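Internal tracking record. Fields below are filled automatically when a chain is submitted to the structure queue. Please do not edit lines marked as system-generated. If the sequence contains nonstandard residues, flag them in the REMARKS field before resubmitting.
Queue: standard
Priority: normal
Entity type: single polypeptide chain
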Amino acid sequence: MQNRWLGGLAMTAFMLAAGPASATTIVSTVGDLDCFGLGGACADGDLFLSLGGTFFTDYRSPGDVLAAPHTDIWQTLPSSGASWSHTYALDGAPTAASFEFLMAGYADIGLAHLFIDGVLAATYDFSGQFQTLHSLSVAVPLAAIDGSTSFMFVTESSGDGGIIDASTLTIETEAAAVPEPATLFLLGAGLMGIGARRRRVR
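SYSTEM-GENERATED OUTPUT FOLLOWS
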C-alpha cells in the first residue's frame, strides 16, 4: 500500500516538476509577396489589369527565377502543372497547418486542382473570372507536415493563362513538457529522504 502511495507521489511530483509545453508557429513562404511582381499590396477580389498588370507578362525578379520560378509570371500552366515545395525545420509535434496562396486567371479552362504531397486537397472553378485575384486557403493534413511539403496546382485543360503569387505554409507545433532540472533535483532528494526514513522506521 505504501509503495503504491509513494509511486503516486513520485508521479504527481514529476508532473508538477515538468515545465509547460511550448507552442510555436512556423511560417514558410515561397516567393516574395510582392503582388505578382507588380509591387504594392493586393487582395482577394482585386482585378489584375486595374493593378497595372498585363496578361502573359513575366514580372519575375532574378531571385524569383532562382527560388520560385512558378511565381510572378502570367503563363499557361503545362500539363504537369506548377509544382513547388516548402521546406522547414520542425521544433515540436505539429498540431495544425494551413496553406495560402494568391492567384489570378485560369478562367476559361475548366477546373483547377491543388495537390498536397500528391493527394488532392481542393478543386476550384474560376469560370468567367479571367483577371480576378483569389486568395486561396486550405487546411493541410498533419501527415504531410514532416519537414518538406510539396504542392502542385494543375488545370484540367490548356488554353488560358494565369499567375501565381507567393504561397505561405503556416504550422502550429507543440513541444512536449520538459522537466526542470532544479525541480527534478529537489524531487529526487525528497524521495531519497522518504526512502531513508522508511528504513529507519523498520
